[in-house]
Amino acid sequence: MSNSDSAASVASSTPATGFSAVHDGKVLRVTITNPKRKNAVDYDTMVALGDTFVAAAADRSVRVIVLTGEGGDFCTGADLSATAREAQRGITPDMTMDAANRLVKAIVDAPVPVIVRVKGSAAGVGVAIALAADLVYASEDAYLLLAFINIGLMPDGGAAAMIAAAAGRPLAAEMALLGERLPATAAKQAGLFTAVVPEAELDAKVEAAAAKLAAGPRRALELTKKALNQATLTSLDTALAAEKSGQTELLTSPDFIEGATAMLTKRKAVFTD
């Protein structure tokens, strides 16, 4: 397959809804396009996003990938409003976890640098998707939120492991156990964001980095990224396996049903387990 054919396959691999992928010269621009749900992702979107990153890895014309969300938020995690529809289609919690883990691994293992642009919320599996990238640029209003505990779940997608690797266990525990927001400035100080800039400067910051990486030595960048990951994410596969086991159990628990129902109906959850 030629580079142009491969690029076309990447750009056309996106589903009708959920996200878009556009090949712009040496840059693959991927945008989550569900702003009405603050860019929450359902099973189909996670599978197709994973497919897109895997396809991009085989495309020599792609030198850098930029991932962002449409509108005011990056990604608020899994789309719980789709849970019932997915269950009717036979999509199990195990399948959902596999889709999320495959997407995160595809970002981490991509042979080219991945830049994430964060505005507003990066929550739930959206945190894992963001932190799987190599460079994370955020606006001043951005924040990270592991709110799983508030609906009877545990963090997944390797989010807790990546936070612990970059910022230490105490912060990872605070975010995972208390389910409170981490503002952009604190995330930058903790080493989770590459840079935090005013919203008006965010696009320019991302584009400058993308242009520099696109013009850089592809193989040297690939090996540098691989070495960084080997030095900092050695426990990621183990964490993903442990999270899949735990989350698959929790996704069928009464506490999750209560937590999800409470969130969707905007009331306080009452856990009984």
TrEMBL record:
Pfam families on file: ECH_1 (PF00378)
Domain of life: Bacteria
Family listed: Belongs to the enoyl-CoA hydratase/isomerase family.
Protein name: Enoyl-CoA hydratase
Xref: PANTHER family: EG:BACN32G11.4 PROTEIN, ENOYL-COA HYDRATASE
Molecular function as annotated in GO: catalytic activity
